[in-house]
Amino acid sequence: MPGNTSPLFSRIANMGITTLTTGNSDHTGSGANTVILWTADPTNGGRADSAIAVPLGTNVATVLRIWVNNGGAPSTIANNALVSETTMAATTISEVIAQSVTLVPLALALPAGWRLLAAVSTTIAAGIAVTVAGGSY
């Protein structure tokens, strides 16, 4: 049963964390280098508010892609829907200049067991840490 119903708020935080390095030029979410980034509560579902992407060092430019998956096999194209593409600029590691943080707004209320998948379009050296901030109903 949801924690609140009018309006509907999350009852507990639900975070997802991954590091992406290996490229995936697939635009369907079914590629081998696509990872599960976040999973909604298996009973009541949840809300994914945003993703935060931070380069971990020197990388070439790439595209961060995020898909919604209906809880089925990600390898089945019909189970996935692309919801976000974000350009991640080339970066150079520095001890005196901060890496840029990219906020990806999502605002997705997802049914029980649905997931977010993520991948980068090109292989990058240091990787990008991606964190989803959300909650479970």
Describe the structure concisely for a colleague.
With about 140 residues, the chain is mainly β.
Average pLDDT? 92
Strand content: over 45%
**How are strands sequenced across the largest beta sheet?**
1-8-3-6
Structural class: mainly beta
Order of helices and strands: EEEEEEEE
Helical residue percent?
under 10%
Largest sheet: 4 strands, antiparallel
How many distinct beta strands? 8
Total discrete domains: 1
Any idea what the shape is? globular
Quaternary state, please?
single chain
CATH class: Mainly Beta
Report the uncertain regions.
none
Compute the number of helices: 0
Specify Rg, calculated over alpha carbons: 15 Å
CATH architecture: Sandwich
Distance between the termini: 8 Å
CATH topology assignment: Jelly Rolls
Search tags:
mainly beta; 4-stranded antiparallel β-sheet; 137 residues; Jelly Rolls
Written account of the structure:
It is built from no helices and eight strands. By secondary structure, it is mainly beta. The chain has a single domain, classed as Jelly Rolls, CATH 2.60.120.
Topology:
Elements: E1 12-20, E2 35-39, E3 46-55, E4 62-69, E5 80-88, E6 102-110, E7 115-120, E8 128-136
Antiparallel strand pairs: 1-8, 2-7, 3-6, 3-8, 4-5, 4-7
